[in-house]
Structure formats: C-alpha cells, structure tokens
Amino acid sequence: MIIKAKKHQSNQLNFTLFTILITLILVSFFILKESNFSKQIPDIVEIPKEVQESIKNVKPQKSLRVPILMYHYVEYVKDEGDTIRKSLNIVPFIFDQQVKTLKDAGFSFITTADLADALDNKASIDPKSVILTFDDGYRDFYTDVFPILKKYQVKAVVYIVPNFLDRSNNLTSWQLKEIAQSGLVEIGAHTMDHTYLSGLPLERVEYEIKQSKEYFESNFGIKVVSFAYPYGAFDNQIIDVVKKAGFKSAVTAISGIFALDVNRFFLYRVRPGVKAGESLLELFR
Ligand SMILES: [Zn+2]
Question: Is the domain of 139 the same as that of 163?
C-alpha cells in the first residue's frame, strides 16, 4: 500500500513537472515570437559618441533648413494582426493631405541628390524645400504613394534593398523601373540585405554598401548617390565606406530639420506621423 501511494505521488509529481515544462516552453516561444518577429529592432536616434567627437571642432560652412520626411508604409492595412505594419503605416488619405498641406504652404519638393548638390554649392534650392523619403521599397510605394506623387507632380526618394525586390511585400523590379523612369523619384540604396551595419566586419560593411549602389547602377542604368542606414545605425567607419563608395549623402533616423555640410552623411529626418495641415507645418518650426 505504502509503495503504491509513493508511486502514485511520484507519478503526480512527474505530471506536474511535465506541465510546468510545457508551460515554460510555450511562454518562452511566445516571448521569442514577440521579440524576434513582431517587434522591430529599435532605430538609433542619437549621433554615436565617436561621430560627435570627430566633428566637435569642425565648423559648419553651410546649413540648410530642409525637413526630410521619413515614411515606411502608406496603405490601408488589411491584416489587423500585422502590428509592425500598422505601427509604421500612414493611410494614403493622410499622405495625400500631407502633400497637399506642403504644396499649399509653398514648399518645393526636392530629392536628397538635389540637397547634396546644394551643400556642394553646385546648385541652389528653394529656401522652402522639403524631401519625402520612403524606406525599404514596399509594394505600396507603387500602388499607393506613386499615384499621389503623380497627382501633385512632386518628387520623392525611395531607399531600396536589392534583395527585397520581387518579394510579395515589396516592389517588383518592373515597378521600380517604371518608378525610376518617371523623373519624379530618386532611387537611393539601403544595403543589399537591410543589414544592421554597426559592429560588422569591414568587408561585410563594404559589400552591403558598395554592392547596393552597383546593383542599381548596372541593372537599372541609373546613378545612385543617396544612402539610408538600416535602423539608422552608423559609426565613423561606416560613414567612411559610404563616402568612398561615391555616395553624396546618407540619411538616419535622428530627428531634426537642418542639413549641414558636416552632417551630410548622417542627415536628420522628421517623422510626420498622421499630422496634416497646421500641425504638420508646426513640426518644421
Ligand atoms: Zn529600412
């Protein structure tokens, strides 16, 4: 009897341990799922210390007030469960209103290539200029953004990741060709694989940066002079590679509205969110 009771007890203990183990596995699976797949790697929103240090004694020669607006998705999100897309999304109606606000307020829509030329004193830009930038090259750039750009005849810049092209969520090569030929959109590079560049070996950094420029130049016959850091991650070595690759500017996720000659390789941007009308213009003051 005693032996039987003990056996029963140990069976119960085994069952309890098994249940706890399964629960732990399930909980950790959901935590991992949340952190790896549902949440983004946070953007770098401050100038790294070493970069601050390197420009400490450099006096800016040129400073232009040019807000660079930063967008990801512009569409009506169909999948209610797609939290990343929803958090980064602006519906087309709002984007339309934002462009209208800027147009009505007398802004000129330029590209980052135009801005770089102005910083080099090679061209002059309207003192009331703005730049619309779109990261990653999602399919909605073609279906939702491009028609609005054409409607208002305004310029924009897309920073594309070559290895994302032709995926279901992204632009096709044909759509990109059409966009590049429109004369309204500048194509910028955003690495080959949307890679977080900080901390990587130099060869990988060089490959991701140089190759993404060459990819568009040889396959699309266009000149690529503008770069965007994935996740806004950069340091002095990365800036150096971007410069040597022949880019004329690079954008970050750091907030600001001034473009200076000293920060042309870590240009600041503005997140317009869903602001339109007066509240959007307020961001530039
Ligand atoms: Zn990106």
Answer: yes
Are residues 18 and 127 located together in one domain of the fold? no
Instruction: Give distance in angstroms: CA of 138 to centre of ligand 1.
Output: 10
Span of 36-50, 165-179, 221-235, 263-277 with lowest mean pLDDT: 36-50
| CATH number of the domain where residue 134 is located | 3.20.20.370
Condensed to tens digits (0 to 9), the pLDDT of residues 3-56 reads 555 556 667 767 777 776 766 666 565 554 444 333 468 899 999 999 999 999
pLDDT range class, residue 83, cuts 50, 70, 90 = confident
The CA 10 to ligand 1 mean position distance, Å, reads 54
Query: What's the CA-to-centroid distance between 45 and ligand 1, angstroms?
Result: 14
Q: How far is the CA of 162 from the centre of ligand 1 (A)?
A: 12
Please list all protein residues whose beta carbon sits less than 5 angstroms from ligand 1, which is an ion. Answer: 135-136, 230
Domain annotation covers residue 44 = no
Residue 29 domain boundaries = 1-39
Interval between CA 101 and ligand 1 midpoint (Å)? 26
Structure tokens at 148: 């609005």
Distance of CA 145 from the midpoint of ligand 1 (Å):
17
Long-range contacts of 16-20 (CB under 8 A, 24+ apart): none
Same domain, 170 and 193: yes
Question: Do residues 74 and 91 make contact, with C-beta atoms less than 8 angstroms apart?
Answer: yes
Tell me the whole-structure pTM to 2 decimals.
0.85
